[in-house]
TrEMBL record:
Pathway participation: Carbohydrate metabolism; galactose metabolism
Descriptive protein name: UDP-glucose 4-epimerase
Domain NAD-dependent epimerase/dehydratase: residue ranges: 3-252
EC number, as in UniProt: 5.1.3.2
Source organism (scientific name): Methylovirgula ligni
Length: 338
């Protein structure tokens, strides 16, 4: 049986591909390379370049491979962009995901793993946030993802699918073996931007909002290391293949760091006191998001191994240094795909 990994040329999906290949699985990646990289997908996986909304391409994949599971990572992911381009986000993240769920239902692909997000909770009244807390997203990105959770819930009931929706908190760090990291140069994530500032790839860093109701006035987030997150996906796959029922699970460590604390750790790890500028709040940002992180341990037996922000920052820094110096390991010649 093969696993279809959408968005497998991207940051998190790429780590999933590595983990699946490490486990001896057959992997087919479908990615339009809008923010992903063909070179990041090992030659041991089949890479199909295309859109998740392209039904003909999906049919061709189903005809050529025995897919039993879809791990759906492909999405647009930048919160402020979703505020300025909501229709683009709803098309890519919701409408095309609906088509993918329909494709699964029609083709008897009964397992679906979905990259959801803490953004479904919006501005929570209290932290930590549990899976049964109110979902009230405050930006189109979060809404675009919550709608997919609803689509999955209804489709599962009607069509015999089982799914695991994983609500990621803030994903960061890189493969501990140094094979992959977050590579898009225009990424907007805090740790990525901060290590770029430390390496001189960007000129300093704006701190978006210093007047939030948090201990130091900057936003609090729960940063989860990418391989720990992927371990949760591998357990979700095992759960679904073993006939387990549908689940919605937070993926975080259960404690948060402020933007200022993250910046201080990046400065410390890199030894560079890069410039920081106090800037206004960024559109769509909630003050604090910290996971209630128990359910995933109980349901899947997940045990985090990299819950250490200094280690996470060091991994991100080392990967960024390779990107800057042009020494990242390329897993395939970029032209070898379908
Ligand atoms: N990075 C985070 O902190 C975070 C947090 C919560 C949830 N997520 C979710 O995790 C998933 C992966 O995010 P990432 O950080 O790896 O981002 P990424 O941009 O690196 O990866 C997304 C991948 O999807 C591909 N893609 C986008 N639209 C596509 C389409 N229509 N058809 C085919 N391919 C398409 C891109 O080319 C890219 O390779 C996303 O669904 C995102 O919403 C990420
Ligand atoms: O240059 C920067 C970049 C970020 N920040 C701040 O750092 C915090 C974290 O921002 P990120 O952009 O790293 O992450 P977000 O919390 O906005 O969003 C991330 O996590 C969410 C879930 O928590 C979503 O799923 C989303 O896909 C993913 O990008 C925010 O307060 C943001 O304002 C800065 O101050 N300066």
């Amino acid at each position: 049986m093969a696993i279809l990994v959408t968005g497998g040329a991207g940051y998190i999906g790429g780590h999933m591909v590595l983990a699946l290949l490490d486990a001896g699985e057959q992997v087919v990646v479908l990615d339009d390379l809008s923010t992903g990289f063909a070179w990041a997908v090992p030659a041991a996986a089949t890479l199909v370049v295309g859109d998740i909304g392209d039904e003909a391409k999906l049919r061709a994949i189903a005809a050529a491979h025995q897919i039993d599971t879809i791990a759906h990572f492909a999405a647009k992911i930048v919160v402020p962009d979703s505020v300025s381009d909501p229709l683009g986000y709803y098309l890519n993240n919701t409408v095309k995901a609906r088509a993918l769920v329909e494709f699964a239902a029609r083709n008897g692909i009964s397992n679906f793993i979905f990259s959801s997000t803490a953004a479904v909770y919006g501005e929570p009244a209290v932290n930590p946030i549990f899976e049964n807390s109110l979902t009230a997203p405050i930006n189109p990105y979060g809404r675009s993802k919550l709608m997919v959770e609803w689509i999955l819930e209804d489709a599962a009931r009607a069509h015999g699918l089982s799914y695991v929706a994983l609500r990621y908190f803030n994903v960061a760090g890189a493969d501990p073996k140094g094979r992959l990291g977050q590579s898009a140069s225009n990424a907007t994530h805090l740790i990525k931007v901060a290590v770029q500032a430390a390496l001189g790839v960007r000129k300093g860093l704006d701190i978006f909002g210093t007047d939030y109701p948090t201990p130091d006035g900057t936003c609090l987030r729960d940063y989860i290391q990418v391989s720990d997150l992927i371990a949760a996906h591998v357990l979700a796959l095992k759960h679904l293949r073993g006939g387990g029922g549908s689940l919605v699970l937070n993926c975080g460590y259960g404690h948060g760091y402020s933007v200022s604390e993250v910046v201080d750790i990046v400065k410390d790890v890199s030894g560079v006191d890069f410039e920081t500028r106090r800037a206004g709040r960024r559109a769509g940002d909630p003050a604090a998001l910290v996971a209630g992180a128990e359910r995933i341990r109980v349901e899947l037996g997940w045990v985090p191994r990299h819950d250490n922000l200094r280690e996470i920052v060091t991994q991100a820094y080392e990967w960024e240094r390779k990107l800057r110096d042009g020494t990242v390991p390329k897993a395939r010649a970029s032209s070898s795909h379908f």
